[in-house]
Amino acid sequence: MEKLSVNPIGTIKSGHDGTFILVDEKYVPALNGLKGFSHVVVVWWFHEFDNDEARNVMEMQSPYKSSPPSLGTFATRSPFRPNPVALSVVQAIHIDEDQGIIRIPFIDANEGTPVIDLKPYTPSLDRVESPDVPGWCGHWPESLEKSAHFDWAGEFNF
């Protein structure tokens, strides 16, 4: 099998000034045309869990209170996975195509997290009208907007 190579295109910056995606200078031209999309799909690297132990977890005690006691890695959004890749859909509050800065309200990635790709969120490709989910998570919010007001802390075992 061919060896894969992944190169960060930027990083997450969080602080008292807000939350931002800082795009590396080399990739700033790739932002051309992204303005106008209200949301962006951010593909990022769980760099704090990029080790042999985390990459070899295939099943785990469930992180969710209402789920079965054990789940396979692919049934979770846990950072413990064969390839520590994550994705988040975020609102693009402002895109500075010249400086390579995207202001976002929130992302579930830590300060300094490597961003490996950005994609425009398009409902025709990214939205599913009537998805099915297991009963244990059927009460979760149906949208990103509603998630902001949901008691996520009450859903996890940590």
TrEMBL record:
Q: Which key words tag this protein in UniProt?
A: Methyltransferase, S-adenosyl-L-methionine, Transferase
GO annotation (BP), single:
methylation
Q: Which domain of life is it from?
A: Bacteria
Which CDD domains does its entry note? Answer: UPF0066
Do you know which PROSITE patterns this protein is assigned to?
TSAA_2
For the TsaA-like domain, which residue ranges apply? 6-130
Q: Where, if anywhere, are coiled coils annotated? A: none
One annotated GO molecular function is: methyltransferase activity
Family in the record: Belongs to the tRNA methyltransferase O family.
Family annotation (PANTHER family): TRNA (ADENINE(37)-N6)-METHYLTRANSFERASE
Identify this protein by name: tRNA-Thr(GGU) m(6)t(6)A37 methyltransferase TsaA
Q: Which organism is it from?
A: Fontibacillus phaseoli
